[in-house]
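Researcher: Please predict.
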Amino acid sequence: MADAEAMHGFLTFRCNHSGAQDGTPCGRQLEEGWITACSHLFCVEHARGWFSNHDDCPLCEAGPVKLVRMDLSRASVRRRGRTALIGMTPPEIVRATEIALNFWTDQKVFEFQREGSRQGQEVRRLQCTEEAARSRLAGAETACNELEGQSERLRRSLGDTGREVAQLSAELQHLQQQQQQQQQQQQQQQQQQEAAQQQRQQQQQQRQEQQQQQQQQKEAAQQQQQQQHRQQQQEAAELEFSRPSQTQAFDQSWGMRPTPSPAPTRQVDWTPMMGLSQQREQQHLQQQQQQHQKQGQERHQQNQPHLMQHATQRQQQQQQQQQQQQFAGQAPSFAASLAPLQQQQQQQPQQQQATSSFASSAGAWFGRLQAPTLTNSGPFFGQPKRRRRM
């Protein structure tokens, strides 16, 4: 029974259409199908789907092909088999059987070829997979060998790196010790520099205090000189005012018209000019001192190095020396210009003493006489007019 079923499976017809996208055939067992004139068999589903839009065969692509619908079920075959050959002559029967056998053989050959091509494809695919697997295995073996070589190299490099790390750690310790020593030296140098800076600051403060004391002394001396000059000017003014009153009294006592007193010779007092020049010099010196103080403060704020401070101090000393030299060069010319003025000032007190002694003696002698009355009704306002005696 099993052999009959197997034989029946081999003898049955199957659909020849390769409808799948990957080219696999349909292979469905048919009980009803469509047969073409080119000996191809299709199921109802594929025949309708293809021949509704096409006229040629989907396998051999022949031109307009004729189609015949056949019932291939075993029951219909049995019914037709009993009466299909009735009425035919032997040649016709042979011809019909030949056509039927050729169709069946064509179908089986087509199935065999198709199965062989499929198996060939599978074999080629297996060969490709084997080759790919072998190539992958070879690549894996080479990769393993390379990895083993790399592992050996890494081990060697690890040993070398361990040695280098030990050397570097020793060098680092040595460098750290050197850095600590350098830091200690730098700290000592900084302390020394700070001490030197403090000493310089103290020296600068002492110099500033000395300069301030000198300025105060100069200002006090200038004030004393100004007071003396003012006293001398006041005394000279009092003498000048006392002279005309005495001479007018003498002329009125004798009835004479007072003669206008000659304009006093204006004696230039150069003391204020000298004071102004000294004030200007003091102002200039004060400005210079202020500038030096500002420069010193800026240098202290900026924390300039020791060498720069020494350089600035040297420059200041040179400038001061130049100024002193210039002042020393100008001093003789200034003293020569002041010499005649000092002589005139010395002569003024002598003249004032002579005039004061003459005025005192004349006043004492004329005071004994009776002075005539004076009126202010003269041709000139303030001039005395003599009365006539009756």
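Model: The CA atoms of residues 60 and 175 lie 91 Å apart.
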